[in-house]
Design a protein that fits this description.
mainly alpha; two-stranded antiparallel sheet; 7 helices; YceG-like family protein
Length: 170
């Protein structure tokens, strides 16, 4: 390549960069409003996640209304036939005969390839803790990679630290 060819090529690149910068710098940038984001999420069937990790949905009000309807249905008396009354009496006798004791020990299974969040989800489904709390604890203390594969016995009253020690053996 001659010197003039190289200079012409360089000038062309500089010119192209300047043109691109002018068009991107002076073009109006669309602003996102909360309403437009909510419309997009609703249209695609998605939910927003806030900075603290909690889910928020634009459908929260209808969900609350459904809960009120369920509560009203439970409170409203339903017509009971003689057969239904007999069935209720049978159930009452069964409940008195064998009262169930609250469960004090659970077994969770950690399988190969499970993430710490999936393990935390298992514990949350049992009602023992909030999944994000355990996941954050494991990650903050750099022990998330030590979660052991297998069955782990979790007892009622264990705190986050004890549960973490149980599933990591650390």
């Amino acid at each position: 390549m001659s010197r003039n060819t190289l200079r012409s090529f360089s000038a062309g690149i500089v010119f192209a960069v300047v043109v691109v910068l002018i068009f991107t710098g002076f073009s109006p940038q669309p602003t996102l409003s909360e309403a437009s984001v909510n419309r997009y999420l609703d249209a695609n069937g998605q939910m927003a996640v806030s900075a603290d990790g909690s889910l928020s949905s634009t459908d929260e009000q209808p969900a609350a209304d459904k809960g009120d309807e369920l509560q009203k249905n439970e409170e409203s008396p339903s017509p009971v036939s003689d057969e239904g009354a007999n069935a209720d009496n049978d159930n009452a006798e069964d409940e008195n005969a064998a009262p169930e004791e609250p469960k004090t020990e659970w077994t969770i299974t950690v399988e190969e390839g499970m993430s710490t969040y999936e393990v935390s989800q298992q514990l949350e489904e049992l009602g023992l803790l909030d999944a994000s709390v355990l996941t954050n604890y494991l990650e903050d203390n750099n022990i998330a990679q030590y979660v052991q594969i297998g069955d782990h016995e979790i007892k009622a009253g264990m705190n986050i630290v004890e549960i973490a020690k149980q599933i990591t053996n650390r």
